[in-house]
Amino acid sequence: xxxxxxxxxxxxxxxxxxxxxxxxxxxxxxxxxxxxxxxxxxxxxxxxxxxxxxxxxxxxxxxxxxxxxxxxxxxxxxxxxxxxxxxxxxxxxxxxxxxxxxxxxxxxxxxxxxxxxxxxxxxxxxxxxxxxxxxxxxxxxxxxxxxxxxxxxxxxxxxxxxxxxxxxxxxxxxxxxxxxxxxxxxxxxxxxxxxxxxxxxxxxxxxxxxxxxxxxxxxxxxxxxxxxxxxxxxxxxxxxxxxxxxxxxxxxxxxxxxxxxxxxxxxxxxxxxxxxxxxxxxxxxxxxxxxxxxxxxxxxxxxxxxxxxxxxx
Length: 313
Hints:
Blueprint: E1 2-5, E2 21-26, H1 31-46, E3 50-54, H2 55-61, E4 67-69, E5 80-85, H3 87-100, E6 104-108, E7 118-119, H4 123-132, E8 136-140, E9 143-149, E10 152-159, E11 162-167, E12 174-180, E13 183-190, E14 192-196, H5 204-207, E15 220-225, E16 235-237, E17 243-247, E18 254-258, E19 262-266, E20 270-276, E21 281-285, H6 291-299, H7 306-312
Parallel strand pairs: 2-3, 2-5, 3-4, 5-6, 6-7
Antiparallel strand pairs: 1-8, 8-21, 9-10, 9-20, 11-14, 11-18, 12-13, 12-17, 14-15, 15-16, 17-20, 18-19
Helix pairs in contact: 1-4
């Protein structure tokens, strides 16, 4: 992880006119979320920002001075991307922020919101720190993914959390051969294999029995899912490694899923290659908060212990 200071606010030549821009990506399924988005937009607009919103969200948000945008370049040139919702909204916003190299700030309006930096009660403070430029930016490792069949490229993608090869037929087990840096590691009869980043270690990989990895550590995780194998432990692998997952020709078809958002079919005999991403996702940090504290808060870990609870129950 690389930590950078936030950029100073830019002004156009000598006129004192702000050229700062922000993109709002919102989970518009709840009226309260839209209200929060309007509050954030109003604060930004009052402080000289131009506010962009996604065109397919514009009608529900109803922010008169906002600029509707669409397409892959929606975040191009913005100072910051706000994601207002849960982790799903942040992953959607990351698809736009990553190619634009724009910092991404998650404001949790959902339940756990592990990826989010701020909670709903922190919105005013979060906007103020963005306006003042008193924040830092972490660079989160991603993975790039390619899928091939019979030597032919059939798809490419990327992931912030994880890339997963999993069975496409509920009633059938998947047969996979996993290689690391071109060397066979193990064959698995399984439901699938998760290749995760440290950021994604608390998501699907965690649910499949993988370890929690501090985001400061650069590594790749390999976590078999319900594997019928003597050796099926999760593995932590060097970030420079290349992981290859071969869908055996005699097995059933599989699915490749990246962050649970970008999914493609894999025919038997397909090969998936996962390696460190060429572009990180730049994530805003508003304050110094140890990752340990985030784990305790998000998972409700019993730091007092059962003996303390019994004495004071």
